[in-house]
Amino acid sequence: NAGVTQTPKFQVLKTGQSMTLQCAQDMNHNSMYWYRQDPGMGLRLIYYSASEGTTDKGEVPNGYNVSRLNKREFSLRLESAAPSQTSVYFCASSEVGGTPSGYTFGSGTRLTVV
Amino acid sequence: KQEVTQIPAALSVPEGENLVLNCSFTDSAIYNLQWFRQDPGKGLTSLLLIQSSQREQTSGRLNASLDKSSGRSTLYIAASQPGDSATYLCAVTYQKVTFGIGTKLQVIP
Question: Which phi-psi region, left, alpha or beta, contains residue B82 (left: φ > 0; alpha: ψ -120 to 50)?
């Protein structure tokens, strides 16, 4: 099925470890996004990529880096994980054009930092 | 700064009841508004997308309306079923997307 694929689905890290969350979409969307979702705080934008070759900070970028590898793939890296980064991470994509389309979300990565 | 509010935060209804979920936003300059469903431990599934030029969208038992001038959208669910139990989020798009925190719906058999 067409959509947004995220890997891994679950991950436990120790404080200070690094990891990369992978995201790929097969809908030929231009824009891709990384969000984190925490109880009572809703979805918060970490980074986004409006088009291939560009990335920009969102609302909560500290402690994260991203790479837009090509039009399909957008990865999120935690260089030195902290317990405050325990969260559920969602990748999303959208077609941005004359009439912006809606978002399509991946199924999420549940990350625990101990 | 755009703010999106969803009231109530939680709602419990008996099966078969028609219900309305509310979403309000502070800035009427939007491209579109989207309603999502999120099941526990799962991702967000898009239900309905309303472009700024539209007044409503329908899909099956779901109907979403948009009143940009008043900054409001409603999601109407007809003949609710236990399978409708989930958290429903709305999101508005202009230069960026702003999400509400959601309404947690429980439909009791």
Answer: alpha
- Residue A99 forms contact with B (CB below 8 Å): yes
Return the residue in A4, A31, A37, A44 with the most chain B beta carbons within 10 A, the one to mutate for interface testing. Answer: A37
Rg (C-alpha) for chain B, rounded Å, is 13
Per the listing, tokens 């837009």 go with A68
Query: Nearest-CA neighbor of B94 among B5, B48, B28?
Result: B28
Sequence-separated (6 or more) residues with CB below 8 Å from residue B56: B50, B63, B64, B65, B66
Q: pLDDT, tens digit, for every residue of B42-76?
A: 889 999 999 999 999 999 999 999 999 999 999 99
For chain A, what is the radius of gyration of the CA atoms?
Answer: 13
